[in-house]
Amino acid sequence: MTVTTQTSPSVVPPGGEEPFLVVDDLTVRFPTEDGLITAVSELSYSVGLGETLGIVGESGSGKSVSSMAVLGLHDARTAQITGSIRVGGTEVIGLGESRMRKLRGNQVSMIFQDALAALHPFYKVGGQLAEAYLVHHPSASKRDARRKAVEMLDRVGIPQPDRRVDDFPHQFSGGMRQRAMIAMGLINDPSLLIADEPTTALDVTVQAQILDLLQDLQREFNSAVIIITHDLGVIAEMADDVLVMYAGRAVEYGPAREILTHPEMPYTWGLLSSVPDVTSDTSARLIPIPGNPPSLLSMPSGCSFHPRCAHRDKVPGDLCTTTVPDLAPGGRGPGHLKRCHLANPDEVYEAEVLPEIAPDVAAGDPGTDVAARPDEES
Amino acid sequence: MSDLNVDPGADNPEVTEGGELQDGAKDTRLPFEELARSTHTANVLDPTAEPVLEVDNLKMYFPLKSGGLFRRTVGHVQAVDGVSFQVPKGGALGLVGESGCGKSTTGRLITRLYKPTAGALRFGGIDMATVSNKEMKPLRREVQMIFQDPYTSLNPRQNVGAIVGAPLAVHKVVPKDKILGRVQELLEVVGLNPEHYNRYPNEFSGGQRQRIGIARALTLNPKLLVADEPVSALDVSIQAQVINLLQDLQREFDIAFLFIAHDLAVVRHFCPEVAVMYLGKIVEIADRESIYSHAHHPYTQALLSAVPDIKQATLGGRRERIRLEGDVPSPINPPSGCHFRTRCPLAQEICARVEPPLLQIGPRHKVACHFAGELGHHPAEPVTAPLLGVDRQGSPVGGATVGTVPTGPGYDDTWYDVKSKQMVSA
User: Could you tell me which residue ranges the ABC transporter domain spans (chain B) (predicted)?
Assistant: First the structure.
């Protein structure tokens, strides 16, 4: 898993091949009764084979809408999609339904959040898996498909797969259903797997099992993975790259380690300061982001985060309220893009935010401090 | 609230003051330093606080009926199977565990939404487990609940004034014409616009709805609030707002919390004491440092190792994870002896034969395990064997003096040291 493709995402690295998935300047608009809403605007990212991209954001930030566009799941009659999405070199936007269907579930597949709702309650789990296989392998017999279904259930760690293949979804536990969903997503050996909140409804122990499974399978099949989540802990464990979205726009994009240790956008700071950590210092504060995400119908002028931003006073003039900042490299090199007017975000973060949310890290060398369990507190 | 907008540069006030912003944003332009000062660090344990609630050997068995005409009882779901703990006055006890471990049932028993099968719920000198519904009514003022899902716990056909004012009318606390004033006061306390009392729940966002639920729970000035997953349905940035609000209220009104959640990090921040439940039983209960840094039960250790850790990003790689195999067994027919033994990496013969008692092993630390020890330092011999008068396989030893293991809800001054296998005191 290399992390070398973080130059401006729409640019193909010279001499290199284009990453498997390239989303370039994607804008998705939906007409509603109250007016046209822009769910995703000018979004660009790329994921190479064997890489994992984490997309973070609150509900309504456009993270699911953008990845559903990759699968061509929006109604072509109403949704207005512009820009370009290339999957393995094929342009997806405007692709006919029959060709899209060939791609969907075969080269690109998706794992949904709520496995109970995503699996059909009337059909046996094995039947649903076999169907996904048969659609893309018309020459295969039903027996082959069933064998493949058993094999995949075994691969994702379901005990006694030859018996469980005839169970209905309700006979599975929550973790097993999610495993069955993953098996269905992987049955055609896709090159791109989109996991939309794959562990949100699960307990931590089951979540750990599923995340381990996803990583093992990715290593085995060398697929590109997009993991959509609001849990920064999951991002920290899984992702090579992170895309932070707010109100339909990318606000920060770069390697996961870089973004989580040196975030440069106040919204990312807010996300980091709103979640406590199981190993953090108990004198760390939990600092919320004030207010609520904006309504897509009445977007704030300028930077869409400005009404909630606690650092706006550090930007001269009324830049924040009038001008949308560009997604541009900050002070941390060309691979780390941020959409913010702050001139010295790294300094502000280290001087103001970090001491409040992680006093132990701010005080000392982060490497040693974090490694030690906080035994000295007791 | 819009008059608090002190921004001279806003050239488009309609947008910046859009309806979405009143919630919690007393002043959204607060500079970061002031914003940080208005928040809280983790709650601190007050070891001298008197218990406001004492739960003693609480049990809840739900009967399972057969499908036939007579609907005979064919078994029981042992949802809660003998839990004991204390909630200190003005403090907070966290209750964590996987789904189906009985933590929500425990919360509903304490608010007497269910009548317990056995056990005691001592609250202000009264045993709430045995009182009748009529005798319970005045007590309901003192014990209130915040529910998990703000979308289903508010009546969509009642406006906020009716929802928040209902407890006042039911308990006849204030005269009818004063209810509205009190409701507006409460809305202000939880950070909502008091003028919105005539709006309906669907006009509010998830975080705002949870605030309405909190206002409703506060109406009768309760001494104890049972918060059942109060933030798990909310967005990350809103979670922190609600946690800070609960901390504000706890300090201002001296409310004790039973905080039920599955998010170990949030519980660590909010609760100075934590109980870990597994299949209807408490397996470990201790103060924050003992649980999170010196957990002695293999289940607690596995649970903690499964939590994804943001700080890993600064180190790279992952923490070594204890993988738990399989699923939680059915509470209809739980395993003999220790309930966790079917998934436990340490399980031996004794675990199937003898149920480990919830043994006090530190000044504020109890654990129910035969092989209690810190991660990687679990003893080879069962530490509980000499206390229970059994050998290492769990068979009773003739003539052995059986020590008494205190099982009450509180902590004693003397405890059993697992390293030296002796009773020690502070």
Answer: 64-304
Contact residues on chain B for A283, CB-CB shorter than 8 A: 41-42
Q: Are residues B318 and B243 in the same domain?
A: no
**Predicted TM-score of the model (pTM):** 0.85
Range of the domain at A351: 262-377
Number of Cα atoms under 13 Å in the Cβ half of residue A225: 33
**A364 falls within a domain:** yes
Strand ranges of the sheet holding B273-278, from the earlier edge strand across to the other edge? B143-146, B224-228, B256-260, B92-96, B273-278, B281-287, B365-367, B359-362
Whether residue B315 is contained in a domain is answered as yes
Chain B nearest-CA distance from A103, in A, is 33
Three-class secondary structure assignment of B80-118 = EEEEEEEEECCCEEEEECCCCCCHHHHHHHHCCCCCCCE
Query: Is the domain of B270 the same as that of B291?
Result: no
Query: Does B289 lie in the same domain as B213?
Result: no
Residue B58 pLDDT class (50, 70, 90 cuts): very high
Neighbour count for residue B96 (Cβ, 10 Å): 26
Residues shown for chain A: 378
Rounded Cα distance, B227 and B120, in Å: 20
Q: What is the pLDDT of residue B158?
A: 93
Residues in chain B closer than 8 A to A234 (CB atoms): 308
Contact at 8 Å (CB) between A285 and A356? yes
Q: What are the chain B neighbours of A300 within 8 Å (beta carbons)?
A: 12, 15-16, 18
Final residue in a domain of this structure, among B231, B255, B276: B276
Do both B141 and B270 map to the same domain? yes
Which domain covers residue B219, as residue numbers? 51-276
Do A288 and B241 lie within an 8 Å CB cutoff? yes
* Residue of A279, A296, A304, A347 for testing the chain B interface, max B β-carbons within 10 Å: A279
Position B412 in a domain: yes
Per-residue pLDDT at B18 exceeds 50: no
Domain assignment present for B43: no
At position B129, the amino acid (one-letter code) is A
In this structure, the number of other CB atoms found within 10 A of the CB of residue B423 comes to 13
B132 pLDDT higher than 50: yes
Q: For residue range A171-228, what is the model confidence (pLDDT) as tens digits?
A: 888 888 888 998 998 898 899 999 998 887 778 888 888 888 889 889 988 999 999 9
A233 and B16: CB-CB below 8 Å? no
Residue where a domain terminates, one of B251, B276, B301: B276
Decide the pairing of beta strands B359-362 and B143-146.
Answer: unpaired
Dist CA B79 CA B186 (whole Å) = 35
The residues of chain A scoring below 70 in pLDDT are 1-16, 364-378
Q: What is the pLDDT of residues B160-212, one digit of tens each?
A: 999 999 999 888 888 988 999 999 999 998 988 999 999 999 988 888 999 99
Q: How confident is the model at residue B401 (pLDDT cuts 50, 70, 90)?
A: low
Structure tokens at B272: 């100075």
Q: Is residue B68 part of a domain?
A: yes
CATH number at residue B150: 3.40.50.300
Total domains in the fold of chain B: 2
